[in-house]
Amino acid sequence: MDIKSIIRKKRSKQELNSDEIKYFISKLNRSEIKETQASALLSYIYINGLTEDEILEFSKAIAASGDMIDLSDIADNVVDKYSTGGVGDKVSLLLIPILASLDIPALTIAGKGYGITSGTIDKLESIPGLKTNFTIEEFKKILKQTNACVMDQGLNFAPVERKIYRLRNDIACENSLPILAFSLMGLKLATGSNKIVFDITCGRGTYIENKDEAKKLAKLLIKLGKSLKKEVACIITDMNQPLGYSIGHNLEIKEVIMALRGIISEDLGNVIEAIGSVMIALATENKDLENNAKMIKETIKSGNAFEKFKEMVGAQGGEIEYIDDPELLSKSKYIMPVLATESGTVESIDSDMVGSIAIYLGAGRMLEEDKINRNAGITINKKIGDQVMVGETLAYVHTDDENKVNGTTQNLKEAFKITNKKINDKARVLEIIT
Fold this sequence. Notes:
Layout: H1 3-11, H2 18-29, H3 35-48, H4 52-63, E1 79-83, H5 91-101, E2 106-110, H6 120-124, H7 136-146, E3 148-152, H8 159-170, H9 177-191, E4 195-202, H10 211-227, E5 231-238, E6 246-247, H11 249-260, H12 266-283, H13 289-301, H14 304-315, H15 321-324, E7 334-339, E8 344-349, H16 351-361, E9 377-380, E10 387-388, E11 393-399, H17 405-414, E12 416-419, E13 429-433
Helix pairs in contact: 1-3, 2-4, 4-9, 5-12, 5-14, 8-9, 9-10, 12-13
């Protein structure tokens, strides 16, 4: 068996067997094959697809490529939440403390971001002192202590998945449903949770273009879950405009803090309630989603979710004074308004363009070695369906580079489409699939 024969086999649309898949994953994990060869196989998978059996074997091999956690001593049901990401997606950072404040152990093991979807780890590490790289024993200790923990996948959880994540982005295969499915499930298998909720985002601001593709991925993940004895639910959410009001690391942490204090945008609140209600239903006997959403509102209103976030941040070494006073987080040197030049209603906001501008400002990375500027980013002042008058502020550009001010403000204005028609704000939660 050799990598070239495996590449040829998938090029000719043949099904790979378990041994061939394990061989490829183990060799890639140990860097014993060339990245060009791995890229070639991923490209043929993108073109020719995989069977459900192949996706299952890839998932198991990816999980086995590193450490695996046994959480059976934490609780009977531990819920793990994962998102396919998007511009302004800070949902995990809200849901973990919300669920934990309801005495439901909740966790996520995530990675750093690439492209327009910046990572949960990058955002959380904006809090000075906060750590996400733990040993398994430290991770479980924090989870037992607080019911909440966010851990960096980079330690040794499904390490080969990180290589595949980077390669599929490098070769423009990031929207391959089979690759997405085995990457997501492989990582979640390693975390030890028996209940998994996937937030599958679709639209201009993420990898998956439309709801139909998102549904295909959801059904695939649920089938995989059954085969692996994991209970899986999927919520499809729209990412055709940024989620919430902020894009960028310090900016999003501030929005998370304010949201946990009860000051939350309507669209972000709707997504939190929909996903969180499903997580509660999986973890407890409370199957009434409407009632679960009320529980989420109440734990935010009472301040319990905010206090749990402080507890989690403190347990992970973060300086909680930044949570009590988010204005302590550093700000950009230049904060420039983007002004409307016409009146009407916001018809659309190009999330892909907004995300690309945020990367240009320094709020994201295209390559693993790229450095991020935690001050940089964008705040959105008007959303789809909002009325706007000439001279009103559509958004703000946050940058430390004076040379980037004029060009980005003009480009960001072009991301907003204004119309004279009446526009209803589009629903963010498109479908729940269990």
